[in-house]
Amino acid sequence: MGATNAVGVVIVNYRSAELTLRALESLARERAHTGLALGAIVVENASGDAAVLARALAARFADFARLVISPTNGGFGAGNNLGLRALFDEREPPTYCFFLNPDTEVRPGAVAALVRFLDRHPRAAFAGSRIEHADGSEWPIAFRFPSVLSELESGLSLGLVSRLLEKHAVARTMGSVPERVDWLCGAALMGRREVLERLGGFDEAYFLYFEEIDLCLRAHRAGFECWHVPESRVMHIRGQSTGVTALGGEPRRLPRYWFESRRHYYVKNHGLAYAALADLACIGANAVGQVKRAIKRQPSTPHFLRDLVRESVLLPGPRARLARVHR
Fold first, then answer.
1. Contact criterion met (CB below 8 Å) for 157 and 289
2. Cα-Cα-Cα-Cα dihedral of 158, 160, 162, 168, to 10°?
3. Which stretches in the chain have pLDDT values below 50?
4. Do 87 and 224 have their domain in common?
5. Do residue 260 and residue 230 come from a single domain?
6. What one-character DSSP code corresponds to residue 183?
7. Which of 1, 44, 113, 153 is the least crowded, having the fewest Cβ atoms under 10 Å away?
8. What are the tens digits of pLDDT across the range 105-133?
C-alpha cells in the first residue's frame, strides 16, 4: 500500500465472518477493476471468528488483507481505532482510510470515486458513499448534526412541525451530485489519514452509535468538510451487524448503549445544560408523538420513551455514570 493515493480499508468483524468475506471479495474486485493500490485490515472484535477469518484470509486474500485480533470487544470505535493503528504503523501508511461495515459490498468503482473526490477537494476530511439496499433500491440519506430542534422534529413527526423544522431534521435526502453535509453513515466512510491522526480517531467512550457523528463534528470544528458522493455506491444490508436497524419489519427496542452514546454525545459536545434541554425536548415530543402514532396505529420503537427517561441526564443515576466517563 505504498503507492500514491493508496487506501487502507478497516473492517470490524463481530460474529459476521461470512459477510466480512463477501465484503473482501467486493474489495478484491475493486482492486482488479480499478488498479487502485488498496489494502485491508480486518479487526476481529473478540467474537470467536478469528480461526475462520485467519484461514480464509490466508487462502483467498493474503495479497491485500491481514487480520488483527482484538483481545476484547471495546465497541465499534475501539475496533476501528485498532485497525487505524495498524495502518498508521505501516512502513508507508495509506493516504486514505476507508471504514467499511462487514455487511457491505462495494459496487465497481466505489472506492476509486471517493479517492478521486478527496484528491480534488483538499478541505474535505471525509467522503461517504451512496448506500444501496440488497435489492438495489437506494437509501440516499446523509445527515445534519442532532440538536434540540431535531429532537422536537423527530419526536413529534407532525406534518406542520416537520415542515417548519425541515432544515433542522437530522436525515437529509440527497441528490445526484456531491453535496457537503454535517455527517455521514459510518458503514462506508473514507477519511484522510492525516486528519484522522490529528483527531485521534474515534472516541472509544462510544460503544456503538454516535461515534461517526462525533468524529465528523470534531473534523468540522477543526475546519474540515464532509461530503456525500453519490458516484460511489455501496450495498449495505442494514442491521446485519447489530440486529437493531434491520430494513423492514417492526421497529426493535434500542439497546441501552444507544442511549448511553446519545447522552455522551450531547454532554461532551454541547454541555450538561444543553443535554438536559435536548432530553426534555425529546421526552416531550415523543410523549405527544406516541399518542399520535397510537391513534393512527403507526409502529413505534418499543419502550423508547421509558428507556429515554431512564437514561436521561435529568436523573442522578445517568449523571453519575457520565461523571465517570468525563472525569
1. yes
2. -140
3. 1-4
4. yes
5. no
6. B
7. 1
8. 999 999 999 999 999 999 999 999 999 99
Return the C-alpha cell found at 305. Answer: 420513551
How many degrees, rounded to 5, is the angle at CA 162 between CA 161 and CA 167?
Answer: 115
**Distance of alpha carbon 100 from alpha carbon 80, whole angstroms:** 10
52-57 contacts: CB < 8 A, separation 24 or more?
52/17, 53/13, 53/17, 53/20, 53/21, 56/17, 56/21, 57/24
CA distances from 297 to 1, 249, 285, 288, 301 (A): 54, 15, 18, 14, 13
- Residue 235's beta-bridge partner residues? 105, 132
If asked whether residues 273 and 222 sit together in one domain, one would say no
In a domain, 82, yes or no: yes
**pLDDT at 151 (0 to 100):** 98
How many domains is the chain partitioned into structurally?
Answer: 2
Considering the domain architecture, whether residues 55 and 203 belong to the same structural domain is answered as yes
Report the distance separating Cα 276 and Cα 280, nearest Å.
Answer: 6
Instruction: Please enumerate in sequence order all residues whose Cβ is within 8 A of that of 20, keeping only pairs 6 or more positions apart, or say none.
Output: 11, 13, 42, 49, 53, 102
Determine if the pTM surpasses 0.90: yes
CATH number of 217's domain: 3.90.550.10
For 56, the domain range is 7-140+175-236
Residues 211 and 290 in one domain: no
Q: Which three cell numbers stand for residue 144?
A: 445534519
* Helix ranges (DSSP H) in 177-238: 193-199, 211-221
